[in-house]
Design a protein that fits this description.
This protein is an alpha/beta fold and 312 residues long. The protein is 44% helix and 17% strand. It has 2 domains: 207 residues, Spore Coat Polysaccharide Biosynthesis Protein SpsA, Chain A; 88 residues, no CATH class.
Length: 312
Amino acid sequence: MASAVSVIIPTYNRGAMVREAIASVLAQRDIDCELIVVDDGSIDGTEEDLAEHAAAHGYQVIRTAHRGVAAARNRGVAEARSEFVAFLDSDDLWMPSKLARQVDFMRANPHLQISQCGERWRRRGRWVNPGRRHRKRGGDFFVDSLRTCLVSPSAAIMRRDFFCALGGFDETLAACEDYDLWLRVLVENEIGLLDEPLVIRRAGHPDQLSTSIPALDRFRIIALLKILREPRFSAQRRDAACEVLIEKCTIYGDGLARRGRSVAARTCYSIANAASAWLAGPDDALVESIALMRSMIQADHDPGASASEALR
């Protein structure tokens, strides 16, 4: 019999922390789950460390080349066989009742494709209170999600078929891949909320993705451009997305200008200036803008790329 839920843990060079995350999954009560750990090309001994442990505790470890957290999560889901999929970041922990409570919640609300639960935050070993704008919520909160990522992977559970139909995480985004996915979810779906603190989010460590990758707004800009291709938007949602796109392009462009990257800055300003045209719907310029932003990111990642000189 298939497990009720498949748990996907992506990890990269977090040997000690991922063992703690795994332990919190193995400690889940009153539910049968399938655990899949995706080692995203770690070079710190994670593969060897987990091999014996996985065999002893009955979970699967998949070793891949280093391609990023989005690809690692998608690879895990490709192996999943359960009705639901749940994600746990390797630096986070679950309370023992997390999975059972969320699966019960989803089954009690069959109209929901996805839900999230509450969480507690721990930063550098100390408990902290999240700001009001970060507090978890449920329902249709698309507009609020444009400025702040209001869902965390470790708190979310969704129907596997729904995740696959969405196309999974965008593997071209080195960061903010969750922001991109939640916006796509919220185009036509509500997100349920089980308002119980069942996740412990740990932050403040030096390899935290949100602090180790600079200029996160460049990835959010791509996510916003992508969502503006959506033809099913209401006028209100399209207007809100264009407004936030203009804000983020202006802020990022100003930062580029201060660093002397005048051509790249002008590219951001040109996207901001074009945004008003997308209030009526997507056009060829929108598609070209996505390609331009992707080229800028590739140029940053690989200074030898052909687009690098043109965008500096």
